[in-house]
Amino acid sequence: MGAEQLNIPTLDLPRVVIIGGGFAGLKLAKGIDSSLYQTVLIDRNNYHTFQPLMYQVASSGLEPDSIAYPLRKVFKGKKRFHFRMADVIQVDESSKTLQTSIGPIKYDILVIATGADSNFFGMENVKKYSMPMKNLVESLNLRSRILTNFEKALNTTDLSEQEALMSFVIVGGGPTGVELAGALAELKKQILPKDYPDLDIRKMQIHIVEASDRLLANMSETASVKTEKFLKKMDVNVWLGTQVKDYDGKQVITSKHVFNSKTLVWAAGVQGVPPAGLNATIVRGNRILTDEFNKVVEKENVFAIGDVAQIKSDQAPNGHPMLASVAGQQGSKLAKNLNALAKNITMQPFSYADKGTMATIGRNLAVVDLPFFSFSGLFAWLTWMFVHLMLLVDYRSRLVVFVNWAWSYLNYDKGTRLIVRTSEDKSSID
Ligand SMILES: Cc1cc2nc3c(=O)[nH]c(=O)nc-3n(C[C@H](O)[C@H](O)[C@H](O)COP(=O)(O)OP(=O)(O)OC[C@H]3O[C@@H](n4cnc5c(N)ncnc54)[C@H](O)[C@@H]3O)c2cc1C
Question: Could you give the domains of the chain?
Fold first, then answer.
């Protein structure tokens, strides 16, 4: 028994401290048996973010509160559970203590579920001037930037300046890049001409730049081909085999072309964000190496799950993809394993059940790869919508998102075209 830390009582039960209330941390904390452990969940935000729909916040389709959910509400009524909103600054393994922005906290078992952040591959200028979309604040910043650009384009007589304001370069042809490009194309076609009748919206250019030779490289060839076709039909310029080299906030230098653009969206790379102080094996993508039980290699009481972790397994020699489904399944599995551990039952290795991958490009257009076959078009789009609605945390979010989608579909409208400036606002760069 020790002194109380963060006003959390010390019990005669082992304490599991989880860093991160994302897909992995949330499932884990939900599954831990309160009669076996005291659980402390720490996140720098007081909400869980449904990242797959962030591009819709950035493109004025949804409000942030329909894809973010208060963590305290998720765990309402859960016994021996404590949430603390704090930044974890350092792990001190020798004293089994975390240093956080609100003070230290001891753990018996530590689970790292800190996710991933943008990787700019050492390009400092790109990092400085581009707009990433890895969290809710960045999505709102991007939305502000897009709309502010049109407000500015309306007021300038300098044609080159206007071109730069109305050109959007998205780097990365994965699901995020593809979905955002499609959403911008819909804005161009359906919304902006009505909002800006004094501006020739045909001048708006959307470019998607991808280093490899196809879009959605992690999906089937069929899905890649269809996606490229859909995007081109929607007036998106697709640049394959093209690498971004530099950006000064005005010109994007790529291996093939120079774009005059004030908005470079970075959707090209992510890397794990392990907490400082952890003396672990870090592998490709800045991920913590774990065994098949999600235990950090060569540690006794430290686990890592989700995007920040890479399992050493035969099923995925290079690690599982950084996906919400992988993170959620790892969280659920680890909860079962920790509950088993407390009862001296043998833990089971993690095995990923791949239920398929999908991406949406626009109205009635999506691609779906299931383990045994692929399909695209209207049915894929309906599938995408149904799956994403069901994955949202609660009924309220599902209803709000569904109503927004139905409204947009029937009225060719998007209801949330507000320029909301945030504390990390980058939208005012001249
Ligand atoms: C734009 C976008 C679109 C995506 N689309 C899809 C998709 O369609 N399908 C799919 O399967 N996956 C998608 N993904 C990937 C998916 O969101 C991730 O794989 C998933 O979020 C990983 O879950 P996680 O729990 O590991 O991390 P996260 O969900 O990122 O959660 C990490 C949590 O840790 C907290 N945290 C981090 N560091 C600290 C710290 N030091 N102190 C306190 N708290 C901390 C963060 O605030 C966050 O809440 C997308 C991701 C993005 C960014």
Answer: 15-44+86-118+270-342 (3.50.50.60), 124-268 (3.50.50.100)
